[in-house]
Design brief:
single chain; mainly alpha; 10 helices
Length: about 260
Amino acid sequence: MKLSNINLIIILIIVVWAILAVIFGIYDLQISIALVDETSNWGNFGADYGEIPGYGLIAIALATYIGGYIPNVKKQKILGCIGIIVGMIYLIIGLLSSDVTDTALGATLILSLLIYIVLTWNKDWKDFRKISSLISILAILNPLLLVQLIKVFWGRVRFRDLSTGYIDFTPWFIPNGFTDNYSFPSGHAAMSWMFLPLLVLVKEKKWSDPIKIITYILVFGWGIFVALSRVIVGAHYASDVLFSTFFAMIITVIFYKKIYK
């Protein structure tokens, strides 16, 4: 991908985000009133499991990036095995406490790392350092830092927690300070977009290639699904998921430019 194309993508992302930010700044409340259904099965599925696949990918990326510094190809996989042990702990805790989320998280960590280790057993993880660093940077900057810090300072009340008559609703551009409300922006949406860096792996393939088509459908399909699910159950407004999505896209493109170019 040429640098001029990358700059064009950055401009396009900013323009689309700016337009939607204005629209949602005006119609956020009306959108939620029209769409929210807290009993929605698919909405609650996204709420319960939307973040979990992202954690599996982050575990693979961190194990790969750190393990890649170990010269011995087999010893690199020790980092992945440590991640599997962490997954087992989450799985046991989840089963003992009947916590579906912890159980699913533990199972995801175990399966994702185990499959990855088996598939790359004879491969040098050093060769995957660029893509793993891009994923790790996105994880640190978006879900961990940007989203969590803004949540604390913005203090926006979730739609499902609004008082009668929606009197405590505030548009996204008005911070409320420390209120123990964490609607803006969406952490689930941020985690669902963790797969964006994987598009780098298919960037050289033709648009007619099934692998490229499937990769794009899965990455954007999952991100959009989880973002919509958060709005549907009243956990977030459209602007909440918009900003998490924007952060994910702009960070991915900018650091792709730095790491690969």
